[in-house]
Amino acid sequence: MRKSLEILQASTLELTQLVRVALETNPVLEDITESTSLDELGPDPEEADSLDYLNETDDDWRDRSILEGRSSPWTSEDEERRQRLYDSIVAPETLQQHLSYQLDLSMVEPGVREAGKAIIANLDERGFLDLPAKELGVRMSLKPADLKAALTLIQSFDPPGVGAENIPQSLLIQLERAGEENTIEYKIVRDHLEDLARKRYPQVARALGTTVERITEAASRIGRLTPNPGGDFDPTGNPYILPDVVIERSEDGDWMASLTNEHLPNLRINDFYKDMIGRSKTDTKTRQFLRDQIRDGRSLIRSISLRQETILAISYKLIEHQGAFLSKGVRHLRPLTMNDIADQLNLHATTVSRAVAGKYIFTPHGLMEMRAFFATGYQTADGAEVSNAGVRQAIQQIISQENPAKPLSDDALAKQLMAQGIEVARRTVAKYREQLNILPSHLRKSF
Questions:
Q1: Whole-angstrom Cα distance, residue 307 to residue 15?
Q2: CB atoms within 10 A of CB 64
């Protein structure tokens, strides 16, 4: 039961790994080129009740009628195109690997090289030192001269800004690399960065003896620098998410869902071991071992099949409910709960929750978590429903069209939403604005 739960909740990549481990550890399992139906597995009374966990209160859901008779609308060309995408995925290079490669190519003394390795090993995911350079030198017993030379060397590497102790120092390094040590931008970062962050442009202008317009221009140029030079190498970013489902239009214009499971091994029980159980020469211990392995193999195959059927069934219900979103975009995502889908599929809500956990759908509007389709929302004045995501998009659109010199307050945003028929409290607007990483009005003001 624990293994079956793990399979239901596993992402595509996790499921692939689980199947590979099963193939390596269970001798009766084999990978075949064509899928095996559940009917070929035959009944197994010993495990008839072993999958009841999938529906804690409903026993009827295991009926195969959920998707009976449905065929895939995709051509072999579509399948080959997606497979090429999967085959092109490689493990991303880490920041430490990128910097170490540059260090290996540098002609430096052994002491400087060792200090450089110590610095690289102590950079965080942003590319910053996770402790002061002097403290690092003491802990690693590095010579001050070697440490200083190595730090200067690392700070000359790509990407610009790595090897700093904080954001201001990183910005200064980036400006130095661009040959802008004597610019107003450099002076602002060095002496007035906090005032710049608080949009105190007049004070900065007076301190540097220039105009507000020049400070505004400098702020724009500083804004193009990166506060996170190691971000492109962030191992937690993981841009290589494989969708579990693809939703596209078929040739007749209908929305169709297909599982991206062509890269999964297709499993079946090897006939040789089935026959071996019936042989009189097979001893009792071996026969029992094979029975256990066959039972486990059948359970795995059934669990994978049930997982796939459940995910696909949920996907088609999402198409029914969110057709407007698929056609028009996030603004038209309707409020939907897991209970709504569970009731229509005769499932328990926990089954739906487990099935969508960690799963992704590729839609016409990009890659989305399946959970993103389930959201509470609001009813507009004309009776239409709009989800939280739709409200956030409305806020973002309003702010994108505001006057930069007179940005809208949260109260003003709430009134604008009201004019669109969406009644949302000011504090809710503030919460959604923060979720969108949009600054409050006094920090959005431009001069």
A1: 10
A2: 12
251 and 209 in a common domain: no
Which of 339, 368, 397 is the last residue in one of the domains?
368
Residues 8 and 108 in one domain: no
Mean pLDDT of the chain: 80
Same domain assignment for residues 248 and 329: yes
Average pLDDT for 137-158: 91
Is position 67 within any domain?
Answer: no
Domain ranges, residue 421: 377-444
Please answer whether residues 252 and 246 qualify as being in contact, where contact means their C-beta atoms are separated by less than 8 angstroms.
no
Cβ contact 130:124 at 8 Å? yes
DSSP 8-state symbol, 1: -
Q: Look at residue 38 and tell me whether its pLDDT is greater than 50.
A: no
* b/e code 46-57 from CB counts within 10 Å (16+ = b): eeeeebeebbee
Residues contacting 111, CB < 8 A, separation 6+: 142, 143, 146
Report which residue type is found at 234.
D
Same domain, 362 and 391: no
Burial 30-39 (b: 16+ CB within 10 A, else e): beeeeeeeee
Please tell me the total count of domains within the chain: 3
C-alpha to C-alpha distances, 12 to 188, 240, 260, 265, 362, nearest whole angstrom: 49, 12, 8, 12, 13
| Size (the chain), residues | 447
With CA atoms as reference, report the closest residue to 378 among 362, 370, 389, 363.
389
Q: How far apart are CA 267 and CA 51, in angstroms?
A: 18
In a domain, 359, yes or no: yes
Nearest residue to 396 (alpha-carbon basis) of 331, 322, 336: 331
- C-alpha pair distances (Å), 325 with each of 11, 52, 102, 233, 319: 24, 34, 47, 33, 9
Where does the pLDDT of residue 37 fall: very low under 50, low under 70, confident under 90, or very high at 90 and above? Answer: very low
Q: Are residues 101 and 228 in the same domain?
A: yes
Beta bridge partners of 361: 245, 368
Closest CA to 302 of 41, 93, 57: 41
Closest CA to 257 of 76, 71, 84: 71
